[in-house]
Amino acid sequence: xxxxxxxxxxxxxxxxxxxxxxxxxxxxxxxxxxxxxxxxxxxxxxxxxxxxxxxxxxxxxxxxxxxxxxxxxxxxxxxxxxxxxxxxxxxxxxxxxxxxxxxxxxxxxxxxxxxxxxxxxxxxxxxxxxxxxxxxxxxxxxxxxxxxxxxxxxxxxxxxxxxxxxxxxxxxxxxxxxxxxxxxxxxxxxxxxxxxxxxxxxxxxxxxxxxxxxxxxxxxxxxxxxxxxxxxxxxxxxxxxxxxxxxxxxxxxxxxxxxxxxxxxxxxxxxxxxxxxxxxxxxxxxxxxxxxxxxxxxxxxxxxxxxxxxxxxxxxxxxxxxxxxxxxxxxxxxxxxxxxxxxxxxxxxxxxxxxxxxxxxxxxxxxxxxxxxxxxxxxxxxxxxxxxxxxxxxxxxxxxxxxxxxxxxxxxxxxxxxxxxxx
Length: 423
Description:
With 423 residues, the chain is mostly helical. The chain is built from 18 helices and 3 strands. It is 72% helix and 5% strand.
């Protein structure tokens, strides 16, 4: 029988416990713990997770990375979206197990390894201890909890559905992390290939080509070199004699691009180009639609008013063009129209999206229909990423081969001439 290490909360006393349980699967192990009056925090195979480290993880999420700053541009330099998803999942698990919210926050604060996030959890606990609500405490930390998070919790408090909202928030964050991870993984391999190709070509140009230039100068004695060889030698001499200038130009272009990307005009231009790029533009559009539908649907399902839900969805869209389209929809919904018509009028969203939303409005199941739209487009994003990866890998190898092959051919053309002259 497999053995699983676990970390759990004893519901009768609130104590944290760790140990080992035998069960057929992770789900069976979690069920055994619940029957014993324990609320599982983490359950994983014994050889993968020790009881000492289990308290820092959840049963459904990956391990935390203390101090990790990736994703901080979104959440404000405190924790990544992945860590926020784990925190939400843990808080929802404890709340579902019947543990009071204050006690849950105290437990999570004690086990938190991120030294920047731990004081935030302690502040949330102190706010509740003083008679405040969780949403009021969250609102005091806008760099960690955005408007979407705060408003969903507030709606859950008002409707007595906090446990359900925790689950929806955790699912929303986990799906968002998964999609970003898929896109990043698809772009990582081409980036590595580009870096390797640039390194190889630079090494050939700086160290190998000059040696061949010397050989050609002494052997051919002033004879004209082939045009391709002259071009390669010219680039080599420029890189060798102006290497600092070349590096400076690259750095200057990078810095200028970063500054331009932060301006209003730059952001608008980049977001427009992002949606119009060949191949990748369709992928970015599908990702934006999935994010819009998932955010809007999750907010509505949690009880957030439709106008507020549209404003929050606009602010978290991640693309200026999509945000402007949502603003236009918001303004017309405010005047009494339904969502589908104004959304179709923006001409950004494919016709299937407003059509499905129209069905949802007519049947009174708009939140559920939005979630279906999100699921469908997330699946399309997965398929597009897989297709893109299979296309890019051989394409990048061909590009790298052409670059290196061009240099090799340029160097061998004069050698052929030398051999012919000797013959």
